[in-house]
Prior knowledge:
Blueprint: H1 10-18, H2 26-32, H3 36-43, H4 47-55, E1 60-65, H5 72-75, E2 78-80, E3 96-105, E4 108-115, E5 121-126, E6 133-137, E7 149-154, E8 169-176, E9 183-190, E10 195-196, E11 200-203, E12 211-218, E13 221-226, E14 231-236, E15 241-245, E16 256-259, E17 266-272, E18 275-284, E19 293-303, H6 312-317, E20 319-324, E21 329-333, E22 338-342, E23 348-351, E24 360-364
Helix pairs in contact: 1-3
Protein name: F-box domain-containing protein
InterPro entries: F-box-like_dom_sf (IPR036047)
Organism: Paspalum notatum var. saurae
Amino acid sequence: MAPPSPNLTGDAVAEILLRHRPEDPASLVRASLVCKPWRRILSDPTFPRRYRELHRTPPLLGFLDGAYACEALISGSFVPVAPRVPPLIKPALEPASVRRAVDCRHGRVLVHTVGATTTRAVLALWDPVTGDHRVIRCRNPDVRSYNQRAAVLCSAAGCDHRDCHGGPFAVVTVGNAVAGPPRAVAWAYSSEAAAWSASVSLDLGQDPSDVSGRGAIVGDGLYFLLGRGTAILKYHLGEHCLSVIDSPCVSTKPMVLMAMEDEGSLGLAGVLGSTLHLWSRKVDDDDPTMGVETTWVQHRVIDLGNLLPLDGRSYHEAYVTGFAEGVHALFVSTDATIFVFELKSERVRKVGQVGFYYDVLPFMRFCIPDFASSKIGIGSGDGLK
């Protein structure tokens, strides 16, 4: 008879626990209930850091639909993508007549709110894991609020963005001017200064297109579509100015800007007919005498008929509504449902319920239980700063 297998050492158990999938936050809670030694390992103050370093990219837990809503925005519009995602903790915001999510990045959700008793708009930065929030008064009375776009991003120097939801942040708002010729206007807010910058604006010529879609951060730029792709508006993060670049495609359907994972360049995704088209903006600076040249190239063309389980009519109703950085996944909506399409593997998953989804805001975050405080909850950190 073979001798019994030796017990696993503490280091071996730790290595096993570290490899639990981040897409299933509840798995660590279940592991903590197995025995006290396992709970001690999970309660080690170094475990969260080691876990994030091993997995590197925060998992895609779900998404919010950036459509106008009231209280349902907080309690009902989050759609889980990963299994057994704990419910989001609702912030204690004042009653509102209009409330919608406008961006979700680096573990935070940016919410645009118009009060129930005033037309004054505010932005609320919300941590869905802890319920913490911070209210920021808007500085844009001369911008049409209904199509205002905004982005939130971590502003901590040298941050790897694996667990930066409690650090310093910046907010950039961009919109179209209320009166006069077509003009884009932008402001930037710094949490460290607790103040807004002066506004910057850009004449859009004869193009009356509204700033649209979720902003994409690539390098030193924050990019927004103008209309359905007539042009692309760039906010220069370091220089606090605006410029316009050309677009490779104009479509009657929604499209999304994205960061191309392999080149680190700006990308654009859209559905034309029954095919998904991906473009990439190439920068050629090999010849210093010629200056920096940029051009759009067709990156990929994917036949949706081979991937989505839909009838012929639904292919023509398909459109791209969101992009999740890091995991490099697109959200493709139809008149019936929504799919997550992973670009590397071409794996397709149906998520959500029957309905229309317009501005998908992916929520990506490591949710590591706080065992050290004897609370089997999710999340850690110092709140919003």
